[in-house]
TrEMBL record, chain A:
<dbReference type="Pfam" id="PF04069">
    <property type="entry name" value="OpuAC"/>
</dbReference>
<feature type="signal peptide">
    <location>
        <begin position="1"/>
        <end position="26"/>
    </location>
</feature>
<dbReference type="InterPro" id="IPR007210">
    <property type="entry name" value="ABC_Gly_betaine_transp_sub-bd"/>
</dbReference>
<keyword id="KW-0732">Signal</keyword>
<protein>
    <submittedName>
        <fullName>Glycine/betaine ABC transporter substrate-binding protein</fullName>
    </submittedName>
</protein>
<feature type="domain" description="ABC-type glycine betaine transport system substrate-binding">
    <location>
        <begin position="51"/>
        <end position="320"/>
    </location>
</feature>
<dbReference type="GO" id="GO:0043190">
    <property type="term" value="C:ATP-binding cassette (ABC) transporter complex"/>
</dbReference>
<dbReference type="GO" id="GO:0022857">
    <property type="term" value="F:transmembrane transporter activity"/>
</dbReference>
From TrEMBL, chain B:
<feature type="transmembrane region" description="Helical">
    <location>
        <begin position="117"/>
        <end position="133"/>
    </location>
</feature>
<dbReference type="InterPro" id="IPR000515">
    <property type="entry name" value="MetI-like"/>
</dbReference>
<keyword id="KW-0812">Transmembrane</keyword>
<keyword id="KW-0813">Transport</keyword>
<feature type="transmembrane region" description="Helical">
    <location>
        <begin position="161"/>
        <end position="185"/>
    </location>
</feature>
<feature type="region of interest" description="Disordered">
    <location>
        <begin position="1"/>
        <end position="20"/>
    </location>
</feature>
<protein>
    <submittedName>
        <fullName>ABC transporter permease subunit</fullName>
    </submittedName>
</protein>
<dbReference type="GO" id="GO:0005275">
    <property type="term" value="F:amine transmembrane transporter activity"/>
</dbReference>
<feature type="transmembrane region" description="Helical">
    <location>
        <begin position="635"/>
        <end position="655"/>
    </location>
</feature>
Length: 330, 684
């Protein structure tokens, strides 16, 4: 069959011509040369860092810290950095199997420490000290609300405004917007122990909370909810904190009777014990890493507001702050 | 996506035959139902607010803690547990298989700066496969799809997802086909396996993600295993059904020739069920794809990662592009498997075109593919997909469009939300969730009896007892209420659009692709705009449920109405009935079987979105599941919520199914469809 031959041949010819044309236009170099270059480079470098398995917990601030440390490790220590997108609890499980080496921003997980620290648990994880950020958790309202009703920033006046906060979700009471279930929250207990006429409605995720606060500020709606700092969104809408009865040591020990504000939390680095004992050069970097809430908000803003990739955002900050980075590499 | 089962010929109806009598019979069921509702409301007015068994969102009971202990014990014994040693070995094998494939096609294979085969070689190879198994048009579709992965900037994530999906589907075939044959030929095995399949498909993934990480580690291995668990049941179920459906006469006729068990199986049953089995494979593939975003929660590679990244920074555009590429991939795989099965059918019947033409194509295409692979191994520009900005531009255009929409219509949507929530949702919720538990229990069981008879009643009592036992009664009632309200809205849409599509072919052609996309795009993509419109609330969750469930229901109603015999419609027209009469007196009553089926599927699809609802402020069971996944000390509560969702699903499924069986007007079509179209559990 002539037709058959010619069709098959035509197809082949077409593909060849197209690919040759493409390669000519693209003009990229030869892969063989690059391979040789890579082999030489590998032979020269000692490779003292090896792999660095960095957990990336799902909020932008964390991402900022993780990618800054990761980028320094990769570019200045020659590590192979594997970013692993995981929730906190899954990350901690990974220390024991070597799938995770570093959790760079830990907000305090007493239950996980009990399971994985050496004192009570299996000793697969250890505390690597503060990373400089201070976590502030509390009840926040959008700025327009604080400006028009300054007395709202004191919890004792909240009941006067409860009706303003009512929504179709809150069954006649004021609505208090609870947060992503990952975070430590005592709001249901605080509301009932302080006799507040509010009902906690859980937003379910950071994205949902941000969307609610953004809308509230734009349309001057009444919203009060669980919020925190460091948080890039505060640069866009500076949320205002409502003061609750001050935190005292031990007032949050029994979850049912909590009637006080959240404490300030020193955010920590948690690392896998086995990795910490290894001679990877990245161990020192993670140990020395320390920065401020402002630093983190800058990088998080690059990612979330300016839409940069985490890698680019980290690289940009590193370039602008090489002095800080040098201190970590010390 | 479409389960491409051709509806069997509609029951012939004589022109001018008497209208179906069943209508009156089913009407009579509404009288006791309304009576039960009346009694319920009267009792409610005295007792509401007492014994509702409400449990605050962050509280747990002793039962939940003892379930958590189970997970803790597993964790504590992980270095010595022999089962885990075994599963860890499997996980290592899976991980190295995935990594090997990644180095072949997406990751630089050190010391090479690029993978073994570059993009040109992969596109050529995929196109060639499309040509081999199907035809020219499919080959073009495959080529266009692969190019779109790269042009929109997600080449690596797309191929990662294909690798995970491919391995999962391969394993599903290896495990699922023998099981399908088993349940197809052995009645008892079928009874044993079916509840497990129901369970695998209805249990929210978030519940078993933590144990999977324990047994299989994080990353690719966890992604493959969780995908496998979810994607396996359709294949087993549909293959079993196909084999069971091979006509008894054929089997008997060939048995009389004295064949052995294996001859019967391999020469008669499997070949005759092949078309149905391929439908099962198609469904399994699409189910596997729908797990992409969830697998990303445990660092599973693929397009789910950028979708979640978009959600994290609240940017709908960033999530939209990879989400749309998942749709592209689903359409590609769906059409290719369907066309491949059609081609195989033709070839088996001696068709399939001129063999020499085909031979030429095979050789020519093969040579071209080899050349392309060689070139892609030699030149960097043919190995690394060039970067285009079109993906970013589409993303920002999408974000701008959605921003404009939410800014413009935000006020109106708020109004709709408050109206439906206050007038509808809150009232029914007050009845269901604020009744004492025993009252709601009795009322639901009584309604099940009225609509589904004794069998539905027994299933309902068993399920409700289970729900009560797991200590989340109040949350279960809130979730049940949201599910019911959303399903009512889904059915309104289904009937309006279904009838419109059935009556106007152009509408059908225009709407179907949108429906396909609505069913395949990961819900995480439209969560952001829906959140912007309605804020965190139950209504947001209901809207997401409707977006997800309506396409399936609309298609089922459209197909059902279309299947109404034209003769009947003609007969009606000759008596001069109006269009309205034609729809309400002929088309809808005669499509009742399909409408019941659509309700069944609508309920289960909406229920499957419960967990997504928990992420956007719906609270109740969805929140409990997310809470259990996020905080391992509450894992037991998440598990209890997951089991409660399964029980709700089984209960709703059994009631609607029994309701369909009580009615006798449905032909074999409906019953067949009930079996083939996944009785339980659509993709989440």
């Amino acid at each position: 069959m002539r037709i058959a031959r010619s069709r098959g041949a035509r197809l082949g010819a077409l593909a060849v011509i197209a690919s040759v044309a493409l390669s000519a236009c693209g003009g990229g170099g030869s892969i063989d040369e690059a391979t040789e270059a890579n082999e030489e480079a590998a032979a020269e470098s000692g490779g003292e860092c090896g792999d660095l398995n960095m957990a990336v917990n799902p909020w932008v601030g964390y991402e900022a810290s993780a990618y800054v440390v990761g980028t320094v490790a990769q570019d200045q220590l020659g590590c192979t950095v594997n970013y692993k997108e995981l929730k906190e609890d899954v990350s901690w499980q990974g220390f024991g199997t070597g799938e995770v080496d570093v959790v760079i921003e830990d907000w305090g997980h007493p239950d996980l420490e009990k399971k994985f620290f050496a004192e009570e648990g299996d000793g697969t994880a250890e505390d690597f000290g503060p990373q400089g950020n201070v976590g502030i958790i509390g009840w926040f309202v959008p700025p327009w609300l604080a400006e028009e009703n300054p007395d709202i920033l004191d919890w004792e006046n909240l009941n006067d405004y409860a009706q303003e906060f009512a929504t179709s979700e809150s069954g006649g009471q004021g609505q208090f917007l609870g947060a992503d279930p990952s975070y430590v929250q005592f709001d249901e207990a605080i509301v009932s122990n302080l006799d507040l006429d509010f009902k906690v409605v859980f937003s379910g995720s950071e994205a949902a909370s941000i969307e609610a606060f953004r809308k509230a500020e734009e349309n001057k709606e009444w919203v009060i909810g669980y919020w925190y700092e460091p948080q890039y969104f505060n640069a866009e809408v500076p949320m205002q904190r409502v003061s609750l009865p001050a935190y005292e040591e031990g007032c949050q020990d029994d979850p049912q009777t909590v009637a006080c504000d959240y404490p300030e939390t020193e955010l920590k680095k948690i690392v896998g014990s086995e990795w910490a004992a290894s001679d990877s050069t990245a161990v020192g970097l993670v140990q020395n890493f320390e920065w401020t809430n402002e630093d983190q908000n800058v990088v998080a803003g690059y990612i979330a507001t300016d839409g940069m990739s985490p890698e680019d955002a980290a690289a940009k900050w590193i370039e602008e702050n090489q002095d800080k980075v040098d201190a970590w590499l010390g | 996506m479409t389960a491409t089962i051709a509806p069997s010929a509609p029951k012939p109806v004589e022109p001018g035959a008497a209208p179906p009598v069943e209508e009156r019979k089913s009407l009579s069921r509404w009288i006791p139902a309304v009576a039960i509702l009346g009694v319920w409301i009267v009792l409610w007015s005295f007792t509401n607010g007492t014994s509702t068994l409400a449990l605050p969102g962050t509280s747990r009971t002793g039962l939940h803690d003892s379930l958590t202990e189970f997970q803790n014990d597993l964790l504590a014994g992980r270095s010595t547990n022999p089962v885990m040693q075994f599963t860890n070995a499997i996980a290592d094998a899976l991980r190295s298989a995935v990594e090997w494939l990644q180095r072949m096609v997406v990751l630089p294979n050190f010391p090479r700066p690029v993978p073994e085969v570059g993009w040109l070689g992969i596109v050529a190879f995929a196109t060639y496969v499309g040509l081999l198994v199907a035809n020219w048009r499919i080959a073009l579709l495959v080529a266009a799809s692969f190019l779109s992965f790269g042009v929109f900037g997600y080449w690596q994530d797309s191929l990662d997802l294909l690798i995970i999906t491919g391995i999962s589907v391969l394993l599903a075939v290896l495990i699922g086909l023998p099981l399908g044959v088993l349940i197809g030929t052995n009645r008892r095995a079928n009874q044993v396996v079916t509840p497990f399949l129901d369970f695998m498909q209805t249990m929210p993934t978030f519940v078993y993600l933590l144990p999977i990480v324990l047994f299989f580690g994080i990353g690719p291995s966890a992604a493959v295993v969780s995908t496998l668990i979810y994607a396996l049941p359709p294949l087993i179920r549909i293959a079993g059904f196909g084999i069971r459906e091979v006509s008894a006469t054929t089997v008997e006729a060939t048995d009389s020739a004295g064949q052995t068990y294996w001859q019967r199986l391999l020469k008669v049953q499997v070949p005759m069920a092949r078309k149905t089995i391929i439908v099962g494979l198609n469904q399994t593939t699409l189910a596997a794809l729908s797990m992409a975003t969830l697998a990303a929660f445990v660092n599973g590679p693929g397009l789910g990662k950028p979708v979640l990244a978009g959600l994290r920074i609240n940017d709908v555009g960033t999530a939209f592009v990879p989400g749309a590429l998942i749709v592209v991939m689903a359409v590609m795989l769906d059409r290719t498997t369907t066309a491949a099965s059609e081609r195989a059918e033709k070839v088996a019947r001696g068709g399939g075109g001129n063999p020499r033409v085909r031979q030429g194509l095979i050789i020519g295409g093969g040579v071209a593919t080899l050349v392309a692979i060689y070139l892609s191994r030699t030149y960097v520009s043919l190995a690394e997909f060039p970067t285009y900005t079109i993906g970013d531009r589409v993303a920002s255009a999408t974000s701008d469009g959605v921003d404009w929409f939410t800014d413009t219509f935000g006020g109106a949507t708020e109004w709709v939300k408050d109206l439906i929530t206050n007038q509808f949702l809150n009232r029914t919720q007050a009845l269901l969730a604020d009744s004492p538990w025993w009252l709601a229990f009795a009322a639901i069981a009584a309604l099940a009896f009225v609509f589904g008879g004794v069998r539905a009643f027994i299933s309902t009592v068993v399920c409700l007892t289970g729900i009560w036992y797991f200590d989340l009664w109040h949350d279960a009632m809130i979730t049940l209420n949201m599910t019911l309200v959303a399903t009512v809205l889904v059915m309104i849409l289904a009937i309006v659009f279904g009838v419109w599509m059935a009556r106007d072919r152009r509408v059908d052609v225009g709407i179907r692709p949108i429906l396909d996309a609505g069913q395949t795009i990961p819900p995480f993509v439209y969560l952001i705009p829906v959140l912007a419109l309605f804020g965190p609330s139950r209504f947001t969750a209901i809207t997401a449920g409707i977006v997800y469930a309506a396409p399936a229901a609309i298609k089922l109603v459209a197909d059902g109405v279309k299947a109404v015999s034209p003769t009947t419609i003609e007969a009606g027209r000759s008596t001069g009935q109006t269009t309205w009469q034609e729809i309400t007196k002929v088309q809808l009553p005669m499509a009742k079987g399909s409408i019941v089926l659509a309700t069944n599927q609508g309920l289960l699809y909406v229920l499957a979105m419960t967990v997504i609802g928990g992420l956007v402020g719906a609270g109740a069971l969805g929140y409990d599941v997310v809470y259990g996944f996020a905080r391992s000390e509450a894992w037991g509560k998440g598990l209890a919520a997951g089991i409660t969702i399964v029980l709700l699903g089984v209960m709703l499924d059994r009631i609607t199914r029994a309701a369909a069986e009580v009615r006798r007007d449905d032909g074999p079509t409906t019953r067949r469809a009930f079996n083939v179209r996944l009785p339980i559990g659509p993709p989440r």
